[in-house]
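Batch 3, record 17
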Amino acid sequence: MLKDAMRCWARSKARCMMMAYSIGIVDTTFARVDMAKPAMEVITRSVPKVRIIRYTVPGIKDIPVAAKKVLDEADTAITLGWVGASPVDKYSYLAMSIGLVLVQVLTGKHVIDVTVHEDEAGSEEELYRIAVERAKKHALNLVTLLTKGGEGLTPYAGSGLRQGVPDVGSIRG
Amino acid sequence: MLKDAMRCWARSKARCMMMAYSIGIVDTTFARVDMAKPAMEVITRSVPKVRIIRYTVPGIKDIPVAAKKVLDEADTAITLGWVGASPVDKYSYLAMSIGLVLVQVLTGKHVIDVTVHEDEAGSEEELYRIAVERAKKHALNLVTLLTKGGEGLTPYAGSGLRQGVPDVGSIRG
Amino acid sequence: MLKDAMRCWARSKARCMMMAYSIGIVDTTFARVDMAKPAMEVITRSVPKVRIIRYTVPGIKDIPVAAKKVLDEADTAITLGWVGASPVDKYSYLAMSIGLVLVQVLTGKHVIDVTVHEDEAGSEEELYRIAVERAKKHALNLVTLLTKGGEGLTPYAGSGLRQGVPDVGSIRG
Amino acid sequence: MLKDAMRCWARSKARCMMMAYSIGIVDTTFARVDMAKPAMEVITRSVPKVRIIRYTVPGIKDIPVAAKKVLDEADTAITLGWVGASPVDKYSYLAMSIGLVLVQVLTGKHVIDVTVHEDEAGSEEELYRIAVERAKKHALNLVTLLTKGGEGLTPYAGSGLRQGVPDVGSIRG
Amino acid sequence: MLKDAMRCWARSKARCMMMAYSIGIVDTTFARVDMAKPAMEVITRSVPKVRIIRYTVPGIKDIPVAAKKVLDEADTAITLGWVGASPVDKYSYLAMSIGLVLVQVLTGKHVIDVTVHEDEAGSEEELYRIAVERAKKHALNLVTLLTKGGEGLTPYAGSGLRQGVPDVGSIRG
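Prediction for the assembled complex:
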């Protein structure tokens, strides 16, 4: 990405101004909350001239190939999954997770996975709040990794950050 | 696919009219409902001149390689699996799911997986209805992804769609 | 395989008569029933001049690489596994299943997996009967896929076939 | 291996006498029994001039890459793992098992996996006996596969052999 | 690594003095203890002129690709994960573990994985102590493997070493 930008600059300053980060957003019709909206708000506010590539699939098992497809063009991606409450749904979550790890290892790009589990909250209100907050917080994580690299989050290493629920903080000896 | 179509057009307009989308359908002899029939009805009604490639295997663990084989020619595929009620059957489901994710990531093509679990309904009537409806709804998902691309389903993102059971709808804040 | 046969025919009719399908059979010393015998009986009766490639390994986790090895020469393979009753045995079953899916996807060839679970029957007599019948039925499935291709089993799609236990039949609406 | 040996022979009979099978042994510091010792005793007694390549890692999740590394030179390998009693330990066992299947499929070489589970015996005496016997029996399996090929164990197919516990024998109809 | 060092030496002894081992450290903002600090203390004390490459990600499922990225430059890596107490957290642990095995097999380099499970101790004090000790002990394991190779830990094979909890020792017959 950086190399592309530099090469671009060397050729034509004007055309190069058009270049920017490109971020994929993969979501599902199965999800019960539109998590792409808050994620995009965070991303467009934080990354000027960012190019968003949307991809919507039916459910979580369709996410890995969609992530792979958006990463053909995007520098990184965020995936917004929703997982049912049954044991079989959890197996689907596992298959998706293994698939996303595979996609990341093969492409060498981060895919930040936001998943909300139908059974992690007692009410729809709480599920909604978790989904929106988790999407926002992880969108910010994605932006940090993309724009600041692998040490961008290092100041927060080991500090017990959470997404969608309150941070739990560090334990000190 | 698109490139093939254009090349074809350049050579011979007449022969090219024959070209169209090609969709694989993989099903099993283990399944207790013929899900290929409703899936094909939806597909042929929605995609003119579509070429259907059938592949039938014994059970779900045979599905991933069959999907891989039909994708040698097909643009996308739908798989119609049936999963028993025992814990071992669920492990087979997991292995199949990981395999299908792998096939999709390696080919860069979608495989929409329709699975019915023997234990998800209380009666054979209900299982039948779930199987047929799920096959139809996912066939439509497949068609949308194939003909409209990754943003074809975006209007329904986060809207709690289900297949085989009633949609649950969005949660709003 | 077919292409090989045709090329052979073009060169020398006589030498070509020697050519035939080649099928791998992978079994284990852990299994308590010799499932290779009934499988081979079905195969040799159904496929004239078939070449059988035997490979015996200690247990199920050794099966995937053995399947890979026989597929270097064979057109397809059948694997005959036996799984213990403990939770750890089931994890081994899962690892083997994922491995076999991988082998199939990488080679583009079917590996029909016959597994008998120590805990799926109440008596040794029943386990024996299941093992022999399952091996026979799946050997026939293998032969059909090999000689008739992906639509060979299509007449039985969705018809609730089982192996080792009675068929359960279709559910109709 | 065989091809190497023949090529060697053609060049220099004397130098070639030095060539022999090469077997990797991977074990862990987590294990509570030195299983490499009995395994090596069996191997060196059964395979003249064998070259042993040792590799010791902290725990079972480090085994797959170590197996991959020794197989860069070795013809085959035996891995000697020890698994704790908790559910998380079993997940680590599963990850290791999938990894070893992957290594074998990628290299086309057998890796015989000996694992002892902390919770499979009631006393340390019994665990010790299981570990030593399992390592010996599987070392012999490895030697048979290496020196006699895929049909070396075929006379024992389906005969209910066990390692570390008494053989259970065949079930006959 | 060694080859690089030799090549370097041949060109310029002075510049080459700068070369040394390079070790990646991957940690998370989810973790509640800064495990990188004790790990780095052990590493810098044990490996003169070592180059540390830091990479911090949100949670454990982001670790495999980060490990892959640091291994583009590093000779080996240590990953410092923190796993929640719920069943879904354990599936994430499994996906991460399979991913790390994959990364290691593909790169041929060790990634020593330090994971602390939120539910493995009764108090925060104990969790802290486990985290710090486990990070230190495994950092030492990493250093030994890197500087002494596959036989560096062989003197401790089968001796029941633990990290974060007391060693349990060997069982002798």
